[in-house]
Amino acid sequence: MDHPLPEPFAALADLANGEPTMQQARLLGQALKAVPDLQRWLREERQRTTRALLDRHTAKELAPHLEVSEQRVYDIASGHNRSKAPRRAAPAE
Prior knowledge:
By secondary structure, the chain is mostly helical. It has 4 helices and no strands. About 50% of the residues lie in helices and about 0% in strands.
């Protein structure tokens, strides 16, 4: 995979197996605190993918697959966020 899921999320795939452990609890806690990093990564990857798809398809073709309007396809490709103000991560504990 060219764009791997960022840590600590990549390690979460193994957490569903076996008995609960202290390590598992720690990793889950780290992942929860890093959710803003995951959201940022997802937005960046969605933008990159949508931009590449617009090289081969129209917004009208993409909109139903992305379940958004044609204008939103362009907004995603441009990196526009729906929120009026940027979201800020909560201070680290």
